[in-house]
Predict the structure of HTH domain-containing protein.
Amino acid sequence: MNAKERRSAIVHLLQGAEKPVSASALAETFSVSRQVIVGDIALLRAGGADISATPRGYTTRRPAEGLVRQIACRHDTVQTQAELLAIVDQGCTVLDVIVEHPIYGQLTGPLQISCRYEVQQFMQRCAQSDAQLLSNLTDGIHLHTLACPDEAAFERVQTALHRLHILLDE
């Protein structure tokens, strides 16, 4: 398989995947190094492929089912887990986190967190990393894009975050 065929196969595999696929898993699938996959992804993105890098691997963006809404939040690092659990416990998925940086403008980090297990995995990665959350750049202020099954679920999220004093009131 040549590089062009491999890149086409990567896009096809990612489009059919239910969950993000790591560079290591792709490397094993195509019998190449992880660095070759990273290069392939960079070339695919430069060519217009809508591939996101999440903490759990690469994914193609699919239209979210149900409602897509944004919420504004403010909290410290300690409240991150409570925030994420309040969202996923209402049946919603945290698609991303967005902050406004004074130099770079809007910075977005894809998350794709939809259940308690994924919250736990995210929190473990945070604990094991020297990196800081994007919201630390903005004194805890950030947006989340959510995919919710219906308006009632979104309203439950707002209520839960309000109770935690995390929802940034207008």
